[in-house]
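To whoever is covering the structure queue this week,

Two jobs came back overnight. Logging them here so there's a record in the thread.

Job A:
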Amino acid sequence: MVSNNTTKDAGEGGSPNADPTIGVEVVYARQAAQTLLKLKAAPGVTAGEAIQRSGILRLRPEIDLSVNKLGIFGKPIKAEQALGDGDRVEIYAPLIADPKQAKKKQAANRAAKGGAESGAGPETGPA
């Protein structure tokens, strides 16, 4: 498991009167590797801006924001969503198969196997 942890600290070490910042994370996970990047940003930063500022698009060139969906802790969001302190922007890998179609295919396969093995099927009596 590979983890790329990078922290970008915007506004740290400044004067006490500096604008407050919020801490957010940007994460992208695949089976082979996970990338988690932490950054500080101004309140009101959007998910899209955080993704751009984090540098994850350079580290993981397979990410295509026109294809990959986004979320915060499992809840789907749009790139325009404003973030709060502690939010984790998740970039989801595209689905390989449509879950509804996969379930239908599995059900059809089970029905075909069940009917062939037991010889069972709807009973029809004499008409």
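Job B:
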Amino acid sequence: MDIPEKLLKFKVHILIGAILSLLLIFLVYLAPSFLDILKYFWPLLVSTALFLVAIVVFGRISPPPPEASVEKAGEGILDYVAGEPDNLQTQVDEHDSAEEAAVSAPASAAAAAKGKGIAENDDE
């Protein structure tokens, strides 16, 4: 009599375990077989395998990097991501100074002409 009382104590746990077991069996029964999944995805699997083989082959046949660049392996890309590269900044500065010169030259000529006009009007 002691065992049925303990079983009644865990009847909810036993019921949940039985339902989960039946659900798992039902899902395995309905799921496609492994070979069907493999047949469907074989082009993707083959292309991925070939890509990984190409990476390994190119990694082996490419020359090893010189020792000096090992210390600064990712520094160039980090500089590019962090801000504008030095040579690009120089080009931008040159372009800005040329643009300022082009803008200031007509403005100073217009101011000089306006100044002359004012001076001529004062004479009259």
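Note for Job B: The chain has a mean pLDDT of 77.

Please reply-all if you pick these up so we don't duplicate work.
Q.
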